């Protein structure tokens, strides 16, 4: 009897070592992985719907910028020594006002990210999809494992639902199973007519009402319209057995039309979605 339990246990471990698709769904539909272009369509929808991104830049080497006033700026900010070459990621506002895959940015010159760029830093914008609704039902990974590993009891503490508390769960879904990506490129000033500036202001403040206080020409902060000119796109669509992970060719990113990204839905845009569904981005 003990021998049988050992053999069963080893068999369970071997089954659990398979890819997650073998544990969750073996259907042909579930094994379909989106192409890089389908992923580009999803990415453009995320960009079109997103309000926030993380701007990643690198602090300049203070010793090489003392002549251009950087030393005085560092003193004014009380910036610690030794930051040169270190990366920093900060949240900032974005919009998709030009609808060509290049995020629109209202750059406030006093902002750390923009100062770093002026000092020579590269810049990357990272975005992720945050569903507005929680999934209809959470599926426990460990409850699936217990079916394959006899000694992995359903009463295992790892498989126990968390106790309810007065604080709402701010991530009531598997974030690792949702799309996120980074846009690599460079900042470029948007030069245009007064009507162009008006169009940008209307588009931008539809997403960020408070931004009207620091539009170009305001009395608080010096600011200007800029775009991130995208040169590379790195995509993680979710779990690798059911989502594309890798670089999206730039020509595909630029090729996506508004009609295409408006025709799909991302997971969680409607109530009642299935957390583990591979076909949750609509019919691409």
Task: Give your account of this protein's structure.
- By secondary structure, this protein is of the alpha+beta class.
- It has a domain at 34-131 and 172-262: Pnp Oxidase, Chain A (Roll).
- Helix content is 29%, strand content 19%.
- The chain contains nine helices and seven strands.
- It has helices at 2-16, 20-24, 36-49, 70-77, 112-118, 141-148, 194-207, 250-255, 258-262, and strands spanning 52-58, 87-93, 104-108, 123-128, 180-189, 223-236, 245-248.
- Strands 1, 2, 3, 4, 5, 6 and 7 form a seven-stranded antiparallel β-sheet that branches.
- Strand 6 (223-236) and strand 7 form a beta hairpin.
- It is globular, with a radius of gyration of 24 Å.
- It starts with a helix and ends in a 22-residue tail after the last helix.
- Residues 1-28 and 278-284 have low confidence and may be disordered.
Question: Which structural traits does this protein have?
Answer:
alpha+beta, Pnp Oxidase, Chain A, disordered C terminus, 7 strands, single chain, seven-stranded antiparallel beta sheet, 284 residues, globular
What layout of secondary structure does this protein have?
Elements: H1 2-16, H2 20-24, H3 36-49, E1 52-58, H4 70-77, E2 87-93, E3 104-108, H5 112-118, E4 123-128, H6 141-148, E5 180-189, H7 194-207, E6 223-236, E7 245-248, H8 250-255, H9 258-262
Antiparallel strand pairs: 1-2, 1-4, 3-6, 4-5, 5-6, 6-7
């Amino acid at each position: 009897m003990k021998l049988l339990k050992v053999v069963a246990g080893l068999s369970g471990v071997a089954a659990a070592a398979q890819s997650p698709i073998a544990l969750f769904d073996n259907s042909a539909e579930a094994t379909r992985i989106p192409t890089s272009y389908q992923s580009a369509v999803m990415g453009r929808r995320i960009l079109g719907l997103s309000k926030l991104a993380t701007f990643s830049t690198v602090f300049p080497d203070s010793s090489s910028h003392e002549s251009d006033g950087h030393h005085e700026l560092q003193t004014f900010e009380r910036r610690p020594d030794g930051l040169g070459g270190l990366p920093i990621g900060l949240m900032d506002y974005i919009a998709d006002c030009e609808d060509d895959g290049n995020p629109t940015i209202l750059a406030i010159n006093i902002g750390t990210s923009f100062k770093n760029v002026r000092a020579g830093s590269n810049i990357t914008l990272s975005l992720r999809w945050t569903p507005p609704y929680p999934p209809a039902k959470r599926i426990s990974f460990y409850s699936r494992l217990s079916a394959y590993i006899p000694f992995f009891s359903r009463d295992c503490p790892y498989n126990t639902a968390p106790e309810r508390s007065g604080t709402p769960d701010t991530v009531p879904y598997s974030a690792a199973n949702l799309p996120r990506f980074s846009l690599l490129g460079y900042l470029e000033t948007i030069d245009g007519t007064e009507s162009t500036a008006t169009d940008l202001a209307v588009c931008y403040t539809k997403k960020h009402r408070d931004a009207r206080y620091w539009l170009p020409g305001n009395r608080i902060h010096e600011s200007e319209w800029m775009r991130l000119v995208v040169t590379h796109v790195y995509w993680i669509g979710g779990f690798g057995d059911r989502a594309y992970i890798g670089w999206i060719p730039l020509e595909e990113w630029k090729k996506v039309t508004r009609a295409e990204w408006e025709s799909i839905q991302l997971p969680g845009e409607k109530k009642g979605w299935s957390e583990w569904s591979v076909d949750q981005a609509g019919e691409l």
